[in-house]
Inverse folding.
């Protein structure tokens, strides 16, 4: 009989130990991570590469030569404004010959005991400067010849000859050539020295005719500003009107989300930054599998005028509500929701209504207002339920908790 009582006691003792172990396991396991619910925004976006089509006119060099530019890249210009000069190679040869003649004179003076008087040098200097200013190259040449003749050394210079001649040499080196071809703007716009050879592929006037075949990406090389040009070489362009298109190709399923003659919010990603611009869908050209959207813009031009291809995001929908991570979501009693650690550290389940989701986050409906200190209400299958609120501690590991658990 005593042995039977001993076995019964052992059974009850073992049972109590198991109950205590279960309680400890359920209530003293490591706390689950949580996040604080906050107001947030999510977007449905279509990522694509767009082709920038501009009203651009390319200009070619009429002759070989060196170029003097009068405007920086991207500057706004007016019609009739002087843009640049091309100096011909023949003119450069004349100037170089004159410089060589003056250098010869300097060499003779540096190797001679004779010097030029201040009075004679001043006269020669004045004549030379006047000839340069009047673009009288032949007179400049004659003066240089006179200065290298024997008469040049008939009197003393009083120590200024070499330095002053070097000044004349520098002046002539920096002087403007008389054999030049000026280029004036034939319209207002933005000047750019970046040409890519694709200006004839993507034409502003025919942009509405583009199809999926004509939007295939082309390899290209950008030619930038150069000190010299060759005849018939493209070396600058003027982009007019400050209006442009971004042409986007999407599959036909995505194309159904858009309508012609409607505005769409577009995020342009450029140079490490981003900018929201409203584009106007002028036309949609439908193909067998893909469609082309012609998006018209008249803003943000200064950031894309020198681009040919840009990454963009077409924002088709925007959701505002309470933002939580997707891994916090769990299904319970046929409803999607989350576990929340309330002010009393008790874990409670609250259903939610999803408004939108991306790869990491979801935005949920904050519910209808009921009253002060009351949780807002959502309706699911014609039944009202309290839902989460801002600043709730939302459990990120719902598999580690259960409803009614007291959190540490």
């Amino acid at each position: 009989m005593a042995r039977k009582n001993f076995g019964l006691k052992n059974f009850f003792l073992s049972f109590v130990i198991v109950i205590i172990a279960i309680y400890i396991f359920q209530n003293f396991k490591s706390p689950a991570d949580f996040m604080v619910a906050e107001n947030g925004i999510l977007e449905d976006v279509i990522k694509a590469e767009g082709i920038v089509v501009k009203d651009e006119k390319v200009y070619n060099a009429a002759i070989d030569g060196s170029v003097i530019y009068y405007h920086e890249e991207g500057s706004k210009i007016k019609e009739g404004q002087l843009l640049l000069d091309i100096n011909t190679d023949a003119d450069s040869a004349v100037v170089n010959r004159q410089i060589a003649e003056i250098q010869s004179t300097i060499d003779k003076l540096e190797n001679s005991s004779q010097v030029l008087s201040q009075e004679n040098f001043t006269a020669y200097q004045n004549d030379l400067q006047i000839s340069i200013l009047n673009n009288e190259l032949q007179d400049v040449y004659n003066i240089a010849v006179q200065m290298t003749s024997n008469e040049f050394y008939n009197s003393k210079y009083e120590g200024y000859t070499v330095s002053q001649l070097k000044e004349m040499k520098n002046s002539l080196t920096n002087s403007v050539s008389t054999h030049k071809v000026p280029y004036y703007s034939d319209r207002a716009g933005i000047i750019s020295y970046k040409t890519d050879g694709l200006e004839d592929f993507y034409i502003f006037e025919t942009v509405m005719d583009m199809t999926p075949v004509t939007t295939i990406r082309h390899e290209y090389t950008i030619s930038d500003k150069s000190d010299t040009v060759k005849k018939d070489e493209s070396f600058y362009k003027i982009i007019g009107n400050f209006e442009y298109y971004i042409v986007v190709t999407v599959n036909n399923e995505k194309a159904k989300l858009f309508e012609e003659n409607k505005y769409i919010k577009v995020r342009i990603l450029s140079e490490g930054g981003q900018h929201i611009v409203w584009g106007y869908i002028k036309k949609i050209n439908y193909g067998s599998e893909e469609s082309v959207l012609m998006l018209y813009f008249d803003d943000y031009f200064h950031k894309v005028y020198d681009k040919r291809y840009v990454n963009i995001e077409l924002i088709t929908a925007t959701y505002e509500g309470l933002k939580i991570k997707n891994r916090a979501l769990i299904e319970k009693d046929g409803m999607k929701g989350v576990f929340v650690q309330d002010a009393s550290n008790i874990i409670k389940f609250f259903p939610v209504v999803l408004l939108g989701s991306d790869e990491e986050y979801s935005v949920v409906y904050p519910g209808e207002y009921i009253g002060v200190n009351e949780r807002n209400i959502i309706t699911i299958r014609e039944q009202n339920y309290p839902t989460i609120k801002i600043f709730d501690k939302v459990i990120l590991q719902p598999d580690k908790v259960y409803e009614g658990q007291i959190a540490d």
